[in-house]
Design a protein that fits this description.
By secondary structure, the protein is an alpha+beta fold. It is 18% helix and 46% strand. Strands 1, 2, 3, 4, 5, 6, 7, 8, 9, 10 and 11 form an eleven-stranded mixed beta sheet that branches.
Length: 168
C-alpha cells in the first residue's frame, strides 16, 4: 500500500506543478473593468525566434487556464475571445529581462482576443531561476491601445516547469 501511495505521489507531482501551484495578488484593468488575478503559471521553453535560447514565460490570469492552452498562442487567444482568459503573458530572456508581452481580454474580441505589447511592462525581480520566479510585474501608468485603456499590477511567486516548445 505504501509503495502504491509513493508511486502515485511521484506520478502526480509533475501534474501538480503544471496546475499553476503559485500565488498571485493583483488586478488587471481594461476600460475601467477590473479582473483580479487568481492564477499564475510559469514555464521555460525555447524562444520562438531563437530556438537555442531558453526563455521563461509568466502567465497571469483571472481564471484557470487549461495546461494544453498555456503555451499555445492560439489556445490563449481563443480563451480570451470566449471570456475565459483575462490576463498578461510576459517573456523573460535568460538574463531576466522582459523581451515581450501579450495582453489577453474578453474585451479584445475585435483584436483576436489579444494584442502584443512591449516596452511598458515593469519588473521588480525578487527571484528568477530555472525552478522559481517571483516578484512584481506592472505597468507604471495606464496604457492605450486603439481606444483600449489598460493597466495591471501583480505580485506573484510560481514554480517554473520546463516544456520542449512554447507555441507563444
Amino acid at each position: 500500500m505504501r509503495r502504491s501511495l509513493i508511486a502515485l505521489v511521484v506520478l502526480l507531482f509533475p501534474i501538480v506543478l503544471l496546475a499553476g501551484d503559485g500565488s498571485v495578488k493583483g488586478t488587471f484593468t481594461v476600460n475601467g473593468k477590473s479582473y483580479p488575478f487568481k492564477y499564475v503559471y510559469a514555464w521555460r521553453a525555447p524562444n520562438d525566434f531563437h530556438e537555442e535560447r531558453i526563455d521563461t514565460y509568466v502567465l497571469l490570469s483571472d481564471q484557470a487556464v487549461p495546461a494544453e492552452s498555456r503555451g499555445d498562442f492560439f489556445g490563449r487567444s481563443e480563451l480570451a475571445e470566449k471570456g475565459k482568459l483575462n490576463g498578461i503573458l510576459v517573456d523573460f530572456n535568460p538574463d531576466g529581462e522582459i523581451v515581450s508581452g501579450n495582453v489577453y481580454c474578453e474585451q479584445f474580441k475585435d483584436k483576436g482576443g489579444q494584442f502584443s505589447a512591449s516596452g511598458m511592462h515593469q519588473w521588480d525581480k525578487k527571484k528568477l531561476t530555472d525552478k522559481i520566479v517571483e516578484g512584481k510585474l506592472y505597468t507604471s501608468k495606464p496604457d492605450d491601445f486603439f481606444e483600449t485603456r489598460w493597466e495591471y499590477t501583480a505580485t506573484f511567486s510560481a514554480p517554473v516547469v520546463t516544456v520542449k516548445k512554447s507555441k507563444k
